[in-house]
């Protein structure tokens, strides 16, 4: 079996709207920390100098949002109420949604903004396939070439509400993208709203999740490494974060 990593990293050196903080505890610092903890909590005195090289174990502390790096958006992310009932958090979602056949749709020729159903129909034709119920649909926009820079958050292609509904009508429950968001970039959305006053342009892809239950996988990577639009399985289990609206995922394609 061949495995293809479809995830983008969490990297404190990347530009992020909410910066990532990465604090490192070296093995030597870990030894002193362990000795301090033993003394404080158990009343035990331990000299870390007796350890090989005076080192114990290292540790890393990351401070970041659940929307940093490749992650799964749960229905609770889209709002506190939904037409179908109380939206589920990421720890409540069925695991079988996240181990399913995949369909890769090439949207790299679409301009920044929100692509509609016509763009999906063209992508279906190029792929030679349409989504089957419960397929994981992956949108290859090419946005990950800007990963780690400001452009990653402002220059990409998303979907409009009708395009999302087209996929949901086909029975899709998980839609993935290599872009920052499944919606159009924030500046494009806000500028269009200010010019028109049309509220329907405000994050329609996300808000479609208030009508019907589905998940997004945002900030995927290396979709171009997939050898064909079909013939692979996507595995993208979200981390089980209690009561959270999203969870980080290591997305992988499995090819027989």
From TrEMBL:
SUPFAM superfamilies: Putative cyclase
Gene Ontology terms for molecular function: arylformamidase activity
GO terms of biological process kind: L-tryptophan catabolic process to kynurenine
Stated name of the protein: Kynurenine formamidase
Organism: Saccharothrix australiensis
Source lineage: Bacteria, Bacillati, Actinomycetota, Actinomycetes, Pseudonocardiales
């Amino acid at each position: 079996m061949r495995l293809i990593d479809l995830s983008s990293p969490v990297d404190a050196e990347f530009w992020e709207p909410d910066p990532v903080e990465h604090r490192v505890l070296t093995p030597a610092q870990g030894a002193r920390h362990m000795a301090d903890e033993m003394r404080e909590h158990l009343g035990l005195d331990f000299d870390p100098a007796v350890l090989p090289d005076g080192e114990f174990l290292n540790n890393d502390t990351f401070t970041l949002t659940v929307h940093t790096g490749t992650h799964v958006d749960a229905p609770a992310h889209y709002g506190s109420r939904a037409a179908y009932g109380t939206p589920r958090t990421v720890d409540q979602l069925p695991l079988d949604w996240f181990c399913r056949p995949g369909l890769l749709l090439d949207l790299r020729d679409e301009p920044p903004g929100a692509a509609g159903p016509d763009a999906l129909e063209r992508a279906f034709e190029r792929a030679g396939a349409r989504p089957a119920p419960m397929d994981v649909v992956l949108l290859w926009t090419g946005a990950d070439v800007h990963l780690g820079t400001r452009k990653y958050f402002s220059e990409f292609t998303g979907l409009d509400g009708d395009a999302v509904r087209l996929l949901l009508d086909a029975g899709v429950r998980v839609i993935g993208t290599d872009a920052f968001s499944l919606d159009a970039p924030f500046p494009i959305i806000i500028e269009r709203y200010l010019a028109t006053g049309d509220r329907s342009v405000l994050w329609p892809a996300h808000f479609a999740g208030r009508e019907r239950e589905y998940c997004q996988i945002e900030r995927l990577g290396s979709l171009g490494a997939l050898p064909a639009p079909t013939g692979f399985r996507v595995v993208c289990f979200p981390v089980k974060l209690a009561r959270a609206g999203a969870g980080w995922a290591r997305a992988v394609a499995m090819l027989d």
